[in-house]
Design brief:
The chain is α/β, with parallel strands linked by helices. It is about 30% helix and about 25% strand. The chain binds the ligand O=C(O)/C=C/c1cccc(O)c1. It comes from Nocardia vinacea.
Length: about 575
């Protein structure tokens, strides 16, 4: 018997990217059906690094409490040479986005928390044992035909109709192949053996990258007493040979007194890939996560890059589906995500080239170079603080041209009249970068994370002033149609006063740590338009705000909705009530 059902977004693949995207869309009230070919979630570890940007998204979808127990914050990475001497330490200490910069984690547990989180949404369902056979696309949507296998082995056809389909099925993505999108890059031929055990015999936390020319290796202490090793394989070693338990124990003998006592989770050979899809969207179908990019493990960024995709795409799909924007908005997903994914792939490939050197002379030269570089504190701190990590900085997409932000030229709708900035510390625009997440104080709570205070949609944040007092009525109406929250940030000393004197619709936040004052002091713009994914879409002097807003709305193909409709969107978006994380929680 054939079955049929209707949804808004069909997600193919219940991996972390698909599950996170389903959580975001579920939070925004959209109907989602996830089709997964396997019978259950994958139950062995793959990714081991979870960063602060991902944690911020986990916070947005309200899953910090169930994810956090499966993580180890302050995850340090050390590159050691063949003699065990540390050549490079990567141990960033800042918490700019509200969470520790790096965590190790147990992927199956975190993926499970993302899956369990979907139970909050009646309008989201995950169908296991549903293999997508083909997809038809027409002007109004997509229809996926899945072969569904029941517990007793019966196979039926299930048709799922949606307005968009997102392929999150991993590197071999049938969606990407069906779309005819090329997967550009390289796949180095070097093979690695990964060995995970359940009863870590070493107990030391963190990552050691062993750049030992005799056999490069990795050793990582993970939460819940899991340890991972990775060993580079020589060309003459076959897969059968190196996965043989006796051979694995020989490899481990240099690392563990008694490998025989280990409980193995898996022993598997893999190769690295550095590839990026030429486009992340064609028509009504998109790709995300490993389906859109594959990178070597060295930066611990594979899992995070998929979460970044979901974070970027989720609010855009929700906006288009709710009729607030034309579907051109979805083109900005490729524009914004592709270059950053490529930068992460390139850096990961470069790292791999440093680690996998087996020529002893070349290895000596590398080690000597690192000794010299380590004598320069600035170079040492560049690596320690992870300033080499490419941070997303959008120059095109949903934003007002950053070069216009202080000039009064934003949006080309007002005459070009340069306003010199005489009172700013710098002229560097914050447009296109992620806004920080310090703790703030509200009338109800002290020391809560900024995002918990401002909610999960657009906001306009003004330093030291009320948006209602500095924006004209027309701009306020547009912001209402967008569903944006109006926020005033003041020093904590003024919060009570501001609360009493500002319009009750304005959220007043006390900057008790002084971090937001410093942020605004370091930028020439006291007003920022913040996107739902916490990126700055526009930043300007308050008098330039109307033109900047128009430029942002044009960049996202915004369709004006009536105030009644916009409050309906807001209602749907508040399905998750903010779960606040007070001081000391992270
Ligand atoms: O999170 C990191 O910094 C590194 C993670 C990593 C490094 C090497 C091999 C891996 O499987 C993960």
């Amino acid at each position: 018997m054939d079955t049929y059902h209707d949804t808004d977004v069909v997600i193919v693949g219940a991996g972390p990217t698909g599950l996170m995207l389903a959580n975001i869309l579920g939070m925004y009230g959209q109907r989602v059906t996830v089709l997964e070919a396997m019978s259950s979630l994958i139950d062995y570890p793959r990714g081991v690094g979870l960063d602060d940007e991902s944690f911020r998204t986990i916070q947005t979808v309200g899953l910090v409490d169930t994810v956090r127990p499966h993580t180890s914050p302050q995850h340090i990475m050390r590159l050691v040479n063949g003699a065990g001497k540390v050549m490079l330490v990567n141990n960033p200490q800042t918490e700019e986005f509200g969470w520790e910069r790096k965590h190790s984690f147990i992927q199956p547990e975190v993926d499970r928390a993302l899956y369990d989180g979907l139970a909050r949404f009646d309008h989201v369902q995950v169908l296991f044992d549903h293999r997508v056979e083909y997809v038809e696309e027409d002007a109004g949507g997509v229809t996926a035909l899945a072969l569904a296998t029941s517990a007793d082995g019966q196979v039926t056809q299930h048709r799922v109709r949606g307005r968009y389909l997102v392929g999150c099925e991993g590197g071999k993505s049938p969606t990407r192949k069906r779309l005819g999108v090329t997967f550009e890059g390289e796949s180095p031929s070097t093979r690695w053996l990964v060995v995970d055990v359940n009863n870590d015999p070493l107990g030391t936390p963190n990552v050691f990258l062993g750049a030992d020319p005799r056999r490069p290796y990795v050793s990582i202490g993970l939460p819940h007493a899991v340890r991972r090793w990775e060993f580079m394989l020589h060309d003459d070693e076959t897969e059968d040979q190196v996965t043989d338990p006796a051979y694995v124990n020989e490899l481990l003998a240099a690392h563990v007194p008694n490998p025989a006592g280990l409980e193995f989770i898996r022993r598997r050979v893999f190769t690295h890939h550095g590839r990026v899809a030429s486009n992340f969207r064609r028509g009504r179908q998109l790709v995300a996560g490993d389906a859109a990019h594959l990178m070597p493990v060295w930066m611990g960024q594979g899992w995070n890059s998929g979460i970044r995709d979901a974070t970027n795409l989720g609010w855009k799909l929700a906006t288009v589906l709710s009729g607030q924007a034309g579907d051109d908005l979805l083109d900005t997903y490729t524009t914004e995500r592709k270059d950053h994914a490529k930068a992460m792939v390139d850096l990961s490939l470069t790292f791999g080239n440093v680690i996998r050197i087996t020529n002893p002379v070349a290895a000596l030269a590398r080690d000597a170079t690192s000794s010299i570089l380590n004598r320069f504190p600035q170079i040492k701190s560049y690596f320690a603080e992870m300033r080499f990590k490419p941070m997303p900085r959008y120059t095109q997409g949903v934003l007002a041209d950053p070069s216009d932000c202080t000039s009064g030229r934003a949006g080309a709708t007002i005459t070009s009249r340069l306003i010199p900035v005489r009172t700013a510390n710098t002229t560097v625009s914050p447009v296109g970068v992620q806004f920080p997440q310090p703790r703030v104080t509200t009338g109800d709570a002290s020391g809560i994370l900024l995002d918990d205070a401002i909610g999960n949609w657009w906001s306009v944040i003004v330093w030291g002033n009320s948006p209602k007092d500095v924006l004209p009525l027309d701009a306020l109406r547009k912001l209402d149609a967008l569903g944006a929250r109006l926020v005033a940030v003041v020093p904590e000393t003024q919060r009570e006063w501001a609360h009493q004197h500002m319009d009750p619709d304005v959220l007043v936040l006390g900057d008790h740590s002084g971090r937001l004052k410093k942020w605004f002091d370091d930028r020439p713009t006291p007003l920022v338009f913040l996107r739902p994914d916490r990126f700055v879409a526009g930043a300007c002097l308050t008098q330039n705000a109307p033109a900047t807003l128009d430029a942002i709305l044009a960049s996202m193909s915004f369709v004006k909705t009536s105030p009644t409709e916009s409050s309906q969107h807001r209602h749907r978006r508040s399905l998750i009530t903010a779960h606040t994380h007070t001081e000391g929680t992270p």
